[in-house]
Amino acid sequence: MIDQYGWSERLQRQFEPYAADGLLPGRVIVQQRGLYRLATPLGEVSAELSGRFLHAAAPGEHPVAGDWTACLPRPGEARADIRAVLPREGLFQRKDPLGGVQAVAAHVDVALLVASLNADLNLRRLERYLALAWQSGAQPAVVLTKADLCPNVEDLVLAVESTAVGAEVFAVSALEGEGLDAVRALLPPGRTGVLLGSSGVGKSTLVNALLGEARMATREIREDDARGRHTTTHRELVLLPGGGLLLDTPGMRELGLWDADEGVSAIFADVEALAGQCRFSDCSHEREPGCAVRAALERGALDEGRWRSYVKLQRELAWLDRRDDPLARQEQRRIWTHRTKAFRAHLKQRDRDR
């Protein structure tokens, strides 16, 4: 059974130490509030963390949907205790509300970034998803839903393609079946995709269309702002008729970056190439002479919104670095203390000159 869920010889080699202890491999196919459903060689079983693993593992090390685990079946029951998690690849992480790190999905090959072709299409939010996708190691692809409700599909696809450089972009209509074959082709047997996107963009409808059955609950979007409430309350890995695997996740409107330097660089390669052309290597891109970024903004070669998005994401990453580095925090305080004193001195001098 586990072969159809992506089990491979490489995973088998990684699992050998656990097999020697009498444990079985199991992939997390459902994750919901500390309870799990695993696909194992014995079939599907319900599972929970063993007491030792629960207390020894950090929160970010607890299993998530898509994870491969080492579990111990309970005799005579369709239940098991999870003892360990195998090394992860294709891992999606985000900041949690307390400022730590939260794993979202593991062993992902393809990241399907879902956005709706309605009033809620937001390129700046899409850039955040792209940064996380590139950082995870998964191949991103953008799926634009509700094409049947959009009068200017081609224009919006072109706008998204200019933002999602290096990622394929698909316009689909789940209700009419338009574009679904292209999405299915991204998920051949044994390959795992994850759906990421805000609430109400049609992720569950897309899953149902790819499955050919109404397994996921769906809800109509609100007419006043074209947005919707999330209907998926748990993370589930579903097996598609063609043999591919698809992970649905609860809607995440605001994604906090976590260690996504490489991902940001991947989607803003054009901006960083411009920055490398500035006269000064430490250019702040504000008033320095010979600033290639300011010149590109002034002549319209660089979109102002895209530049602001890049600056915002870089500030988030810098904040994370300072938070984890006492010396960096101290240096930042010194810089801002100096700037504040200089600004106050400027105000005093201005008042004296009046």
Give a summary of the structure in a few sentences.
By secondary structure, this protein is α/β, with parallel strands linked by helices.
For CATH, the homologous superfamily of the largest domain is named as: P-loop containing nucleotide triphosphate hydrolases
Strand content: 15-25%
Shape: globular
**Helix-strand makeup class:** alpha/beta
Task: Indicate the CATH architecture of the largest domain.
Answer: 3-Layer(aba) Sandwich
Assigned CATH class of the largest domain: Alpha Beta
Explain what the structure shows:
- With 354 residues, the protein is an alpha/beta fold.
- Helices cover 36% and strands 21% of the residues.
- It contains eleven helices and 13 strands.
- Strands 1-2-3-5-4 form a five-stranded mixed β-barrel.
- Strand 1 and strand 2 form a beta hairpin.
- Helix 3 packs across helix 7 and helix 10 packs across helix 11.
- The longest helix has 28 residues.
- About 4% of the residues have low confidence.
